[in-house]
Amino acid sequence: MADPKGFMTTPRQEWARRPVEERVRDWDEVYVPGALLPIISKQADRCMDCGVPFCHEACPLGNLIPEWNDLVAREDWRAASDRLHATNNFPEFTGRLCPAPCEAGCVLAINQPAVTIKNVECAIADRAWEEGFVPARPPERLSGKTVAVIGSGPTGLAAAQQLTRAGHTVAVYEKDDRIGGLMRYGIPSFKMERRHLERRLGQMRAEGTRFRTSMSVGRDVDAAELRTRFDAVVLATGATAWRELPVPGRELEGIYQAMRYLPLSNRVGEGDLAVSPLSAAGRHVVIVGGGDTGADCLGTAVREGAASVTQLDIYAQPEAARDEYAEPWPTYPKIYRLSPAHEEAGELRTAPAAHADARVFAASTLRFSGDEGGHVRALELVEVDERRQPVPGTEQTIPADMVLLALGFSGPDREDGLVEQLGLVLDERGTIARDIGFATNVPGVFAAGDAARGQSLIVWAIAEGRAVAAAVDRYLTGSSQLPAPISPGDKPMRV
């Protein structure tokens, strides 16, 4: 630790956000450009000599957080980049998109605000690219083995990069026309600009990874035939089977799944469309679902110029501080958090009938009602108790001529035929079954990420990609030097 008293003398200071009125007029990242580097060395100095760094345990990647905090405090950016990239293929992604369970596990967080670990990580990653500390690392020799990776989200890309660097010839198959999965078409650019993704893909291409876009395995390519062409196959298709809301009026026009809405707005940013055909402009939008996807819809609808936006969360509003009995340190607590999208909606008063940040907590949808043309016009909701049971007499109706369902995902998409063509066994949750070595019931076929684990965080997705790469490397060569940060049975810290 560079300053033994840093955690006592320096208060927590986070990366400043641009003014709401400014940032909702564009799709750039919400943070003030260049405002992180001037503060980050002192923030890294807050990392204390805790002896047992629980941030390691809280992060599935096993990031060496105290080490690179100390190096940043000393402004040794090259060494910090080396330590960060030793455990994380894509820190510029996690530094922007991960909810930072490491900070919940920070020892300082027992009785003080945690170290800004996520901001430090992002600063290292960005500085590393600026200074040229992350060149392409092609293998010195090829193994002669070939691997197909199906899916180009964070799990697929992490697995592909690890296996390419190990000397295997890797081809990544992506059903969309561009690489990136949800990082491309699911996550709005105000959370992560696409230049970060493109820069990393350029590195991977220079290392030798091959990409096959607009290739849906199961539809465009027979999965069983693909298996015969490669020595191993990694399934990293994600959990894209969205959950439904079976209530009266669901058949009305104007009710869409969030993952139909978000990709179209992202395609506008890619230059494919002038205006999204599902634009929220001028509409009264209601988002059903209180998670990150719902917040992404909220920020997108605000930028598109919605007449109003309201978000429904079936859970009660969390407390501002951790419940030490229900969710003791170092678990990741369910507390009240104000995302940039909620900050924007609150300041702009997008939902006058809702709480200050556009969310209606402890709310469940009863039914939709529409006009004579069959288009949704209103949503009836009811307050629920702690058991999610309706509270009589609390019904209310709010205007809604556009409804977005952000209820999460249940497992891999079954409509493309991949599961059936390979003869894969699914578990009781509907995800791909695998053993302790990430192997499915089909020899040479491995499964990782949300397709097998279930819906999770980006940091777990990258950890899965790194771990499955080690398993595939061992299958192909008999041994492996690749790191395996997690096993299929590992779970986040919880009570």
From TrEMBL:
Residues 38-69 form the 4Fe-4S ferredoxin-type domain. Coiled coil: none annotated. Pathway: Amino-acid biosynthesis. InterPro entries: 4Fe4S_Fe-S-bd, DPD_II, FAD/NAD-bd_sf, FAD/NAD-binding_dom, Glut_synth_ssu1, Glutamate_Synthase, Helical_ferredxn. GO terms for biological process: glutamate biosynthetic process. Its EC number is 1.4.1.13. Gene3D superfamilies: Alpha-helical ferredoxin, FAD/NAD(P)-binding domain. The keyword Metal-binding applies. One of its GO terms (molecular function) is iron-sulfur cluster binding. Keywords: Amino-acid biosynthesis, Glutamate biosynthesis, Iron, Iron-sulfur, Metal-binding, Oxidoreductase. This is Glutamate synthase subunit beta. It comes from Streptomyces griseofuscus. The gene is gltD.
